[in-house]
Automatic annotation (TrEMBL):
PANTHER family: PROTEIN DISULFIDE ISOMERASE (PTHR18929), PROTEIN DISULFIDE-ISOMERASE (PTHR18929:SF240). This is Thioredoxin domain-containing protein. It comes from Triparma retinervis. Belongs to the protein disulfide isomerase family. InterPro entries: Thioredoxin-like_sf, Thioredoxin_CS, Thioredoxin_domain. Keywords: Signal. It holds the Pfam family Thioredoxin. One of its GO terms (cellular component) is endoplasmic reticulum. Gene3D superfamilies: Glutaredoxin. Residues 16-142 form the Thioredoxin domain. The keyword Repressor does not apply.
Length: 555
């Protein structure tokens, strides 16, 4: 196979860059190793496929990052990683070893241990852009260390480190109980879903220093550089639980990243109640000020808040049916493990400081749902009421019925769109998919489905969704071998060309658009049926035997 010059793989590690001065080394089974020594650098490996449009698009950005990456302040330059890439189509054994089934897939291989054992690889789960990848790398190369802040200059450098981070500073003696507890909270803090996108800096100022947090005795200062919220926790609350809740609490006040988490069916975050402000930038400031004051004063670590700009994320309007009623505040609960519950919708007339705070206190009384805050009917825009917004008959699948609707429906092809509301391009992709589905909604041989990966777990082992959006085609005659839709852009015409090549039974509408497609399609379908009958795959044989057993049991 001839390699494309656009092939991409990321790798951080102790591999050295080679060939024509490129900072990215191409790896294969013969030279792929992972760091085992404690002094070895970490390795981030980007597995790609030559035909992957997302990989090609990301390649220039990745090369730029590989050439310019430097560790965060306080981390020695020697920790700067190496970058490599692996063609997963050619290196099948490597791809299978690390369960690479979708592209691009990135793994970070950390430094080894003092006894020569390799560390556990960490899979990258962020968006395919250089900013998110850099944040991920910063977290990996930093690891956990408490920076000793000894001078005023150290303090100014520490609290000024990078704008989109969380700074956590303990003022305490080195041998104090608080300092010991401080060392033990790291894993609890970084595993909280609200903070997983951030690099967190932990530092300690000696208790007798005349600089640092403004307290006379031991205290903890947390500064959310994203939102500007800066709070101090005093000596009496410096327990493990108290510090952890406090750090997560400050990190969750008006944090824009939190909106992506709120659509998930379960959350591992300490904060379970949320206020979501949906408003344009010019209207949001007074609302934010009222919420920040109330939450940081009375509900820190108990209630979080986030802001969504509907122009940046228009899909939020459809998801919560907010057309025509902005600005609006949603009071939410994610504590039940069954998905986000909108407990109350606060319209613009009630968004003045005192009224908003009153709504907040009434609904989250003792941090349990109040009966007076039962779900409010969601408003629709005037266009929707008049029927001007076309309804597309696309069935949404959930985790419990995904397998049944796909693998057990042998008489039809299925085309499934897996999406996340956190993706800013989701609404554009959804429009294209809806247009495609509407075009062929009357075809009896194919079903179109949508699947929200934030609300549900993917229960089909035959596919790996990875980063969204992604579309998979399940042929009627072989559901165990689905085909992934790949294109640089999710355009209607690209989907059309893809489906024309994949459908088991041709669409009736195709005959007028593609010459001879009807005859060829029927020949193709007959060949597949004969192959399934006389040369079935292992999966097809097992399904046939299972059917026979079921029929015998019923008799």
């Amino acid at each position: 196979m001839v390699r494309s010059p656009l092939h991409v793989v990321l790798a951080l590690g102790y591999f050295c860059a080679v060939s024509s001065g490129s900072p990215v080394e191409v790896l294969s089974a013969s030279n792929f190793t992972v760091p085992t020594g404690i002094d070895d650098k970490g390795v981030l490996t980007f597995f790609f496929a030559p035909w992957c449009g997302h990989c090609k698009k990301f390649h220039p950005e990745y090369n730029t990052l590989a050439d310019s990456y430097t560790p965060p302040p306080g981390v020695p330059a020697s920790a700067s990683p190496s970058f490599t890439k692996v063609d997963a189509v050619e290196e099948v054994a490597l791809a299978e070893k690390y369960n690479v089934y979708s592209y691009p897939t990135l793994y970070y291989f950390p430094s080894g241990s003092s006894d020569g054992k390799a560390g556990t690889p960490v899979k990258y789960g962020g968006a395919n852009n250089v900013d998110e990848l850099k944040k991920f790398l910063d977290r990996q190369v930093t690891g956990f260390q408490v920076y000793e802040v000894d001078t005023v200059e150290d303090y100014n450098n520490f609290v000024g480190a990078m704008n989109e981070q969380l700074v956590v500073l303990l003022k305490s003696g080195a041998d104090s109980n608080a300092a010991g507890v401080f060392q033990s909270i790291y894993l609890d803090v970084i595993s909280d879903e609200l903070l997983r996108r951030k690099t967190i800096y932990f530092g300690r100022v000696d208790g007798g220093a005349d600089f640092g947090p403004g307290c006379e005795s031991d205290c903890l200062e947390v500064w959310n550089k994203v939102t500007g919220v800066r709070k101090v926790l005093t000596e009496g609350a410096l327990t493990k639980e108290g510090m952890t809740n406090f750090i997560v609490g400050v990190g969750s006040v008006m944090d824009p990243y939190a909106s992506a988490m709120l659509s998930k069916s379960q959350s591992n975050s300490i904060v379970k109640r949320f206020v979501m402000v949906v408003s344009s930038p010019d209207q949001v400031q007074p609302i934010k000020e009222a919420l920040v004051e109330e939450i940081t004063s009375n509900h820190l670590g108990k209630i979080g808040a986030t802001w969504v700009d509907p122009e940046e994320t228009p899909v939020i309007l459809e998801h919560y049916r907010l057309e025509g009623i902005l600005p609006v505040v949603l009071l939410m609960d994610i504590s039940g493990g069954a998905g986000t519950i909108v407990t109350k919708l606060v319209p613009a007339a009630e968004l003045e400081g005192e009224k908003l705070v009153e709504n907040l206190r009434n609904c989250y009384n003792d941090y349990n749902l109040s009966e007076k805050c039962s779900a409010t009917p969601r408003a629709r825009s005037e266009a929707a009421k008049k029927g001007n917004m076309k309804t597309i008959p696309i069935k949404k699948l959930v985790g419990k019925n995904l397998r049944r609707n796909i693998l057990q429906a042998e008489e039809k092809d299925q085309f499934v769109y897996f999406y996340s509301l956190a993706d800013k391009e989701e609404w554009r992709n959804a429009e294209e998919f809806n247009a495609m589905a509407s075009r062929y909604q009357m075809e009896p041989t194919i079903d179109f489905f949508k699947f929200d990966v934030d609300l549900n777990d993917v229960t089909i082992k035959e596919i790996e969704v990875g980063s969204t959006p992604v579309m998979w085609f399940f042929p009627a005659d072989n559901k165990q071998k689905p085909v992934r839709f790949e294109a640089e852009e999710f355009l209607n015409e690209h989907m059309f060309d893809f489906l024309w090549k994949q459908v088991t039974i041709p669409f009736k509408g195709y005959v007028t658009e593609r010459k001879y497609v009807g005859l060829w399609g029927r020949i193709k379908h007959m060949a597949r049926k004969l192959k399934r009958k006389f040369f079935p795959t292992k999966e097809q044989r097992l399904m046939l035997e299972a059917r026979k057993v079921k029929t015998t049991d019923e008799l």
